[in-house]
Write a structure and sequence with these properties.
single chain; alpha/beta; about 130 residues; Rossmann fold; about 45% helix; globular
């Protein structure tokens, strides 16, 4: 099955709704969304998304643990981290765990589009 669409994992409902709307505006589909870190891997297995947009601070399982699991079990699915915690050590840790990009909230739409376009083109992201 060809991968298409995005899985969104964020603890804030309004952010998930905002993402769904702005992604739809640019032709992306949100295949699934969750506020629970423990649910992300199940959604990825079930829905086979093109990419995951992931917050670091999730109930159930934090984003770093989710990144580690995705790296082991779904290494072909790129992850864009969107987090209010943009400390350099968080960015570095997320990158080391396999994040393709790291966007600091509040997320600028143009930065999100750039990250997704680069993923779609298969380019390695430099941040």
């Amino acid at each position: 099955m060809k991968r298409s669409g995005i899985v969104v994992a964020d603890g804030m409902r309004f952010f998930r709704q905002w993402l769904r709307g702005v992604l739809r505006e640019r032709g992306w589909r949100v295949l699934g969304e969750t506020s629970d870190g423990g649910e992300v891997l199940r959604l990825v297995r079930q829905l086979e998304p093109f990419a995951v947009i992931l917050d670091l601070h999730l109930p159930g399982q934090d984003g770093f643990a989710v990144l580690q699991e995705l790296g082991r079990e779904a290494p072909g699915v790129p992850v864009i981290v969107c987090s209010a915690a943009g400390r350099p050590d968080d960015v570095l840790r997320a990158r080391r765990l396999g994040a393709a990009d790291f966007l600091v909230k509040p997320v600028q739409e143009e930065r999100l589009w750039l990250a997704l376009e680069r993923l779609a083109e298969g380019d390695a992201l430099d941040g």
